[in-house]
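Memo subject: From amino acid sequence to discrete backbone structure tokens
Keywords: amino acid chain, backbone geometry, structure tokens, three-dimensional fold.
Body of memo: The sequence and its backbone structure tokens, given next.
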Amino acid sequence: MNNKRNAAGPNPWIKPSPDEGAEQAATESQLPPSPWSQEVPPPPTPPWEASGVPSPVGTPTAADGTRTGGDPVRETSAAWGETVSPPSLRRPAPAPKRRKVPPLLLPIGAAIAMVALLAIGFSQLTGRDDDTPDQPPVVVPTPAPSTHTPPSTYTPPTNALAVGYGVSVVPRQGWSVLAKETQGRQLVTYGPNGDPRAFFWVRQREKVSAKEYLLRIVEGETAGETTQLGNERNLPCPRDVLVECRAIDYVSVTKGVKVQGFVETYRRKDGVVTGIDFRTRADSAPRAVADAQVMKKSVIDSL
């Protein structure tokens, strides 16, 4: 049994004697040196540690400078390897997007700028100070015309003919009332043969102007006649109670007879307009015109 056990080799559970250990050591010293028994140099210092840059994520290092995890680093001349780019520490911010100005706003803006420049230039030319507030115009109130008609102090004579609204007319000798007249009072004078020679007509109207009433009378008197009108004009009002006074002269031809005449209108403060309509044959004009002026004065005095 002892011989079989020894043929299998030394028993690891049996310590060799000192002589056997010395012999074994001498045998091992005669063997060639093992590459695994040589001293291993420390790994090179990573470039980020040498430059003060923190180590990349996934490659932590120990206190002695050795790598503790991650993929092994190849030794190359580049700091991050030949095919490895340096890590990006921060993603670049996206470029701001500019809003495009609509093409239609460009001419509108140019027009507004042009108007503003013209306004500034105009204010400088006129010497206006924009900082000075506009002063409201001083409005002087105009007193409204009084519609009150003071009582008349005129006392008509006994032969005066009432027309209306306190107005009367005093006929001259040789003048009589035309009986068929229904508006106001119309006086007429006749020639030796009984033909009418002149007419003097006083009539009135409300809610019209003196000018409007004047044109109505002239158009009615000269209708169908060949007429030459004079200039329609203002008259100086002879009394304070009157607010508008108008007049016009005319010459016409009717049935081969030449006629001349005038129309005058007077509007009082109470709105009553009194019209005086006079016309005469041209061959009887001197005496008829003189009588008409006297009768007109009696009408004006009664206004």
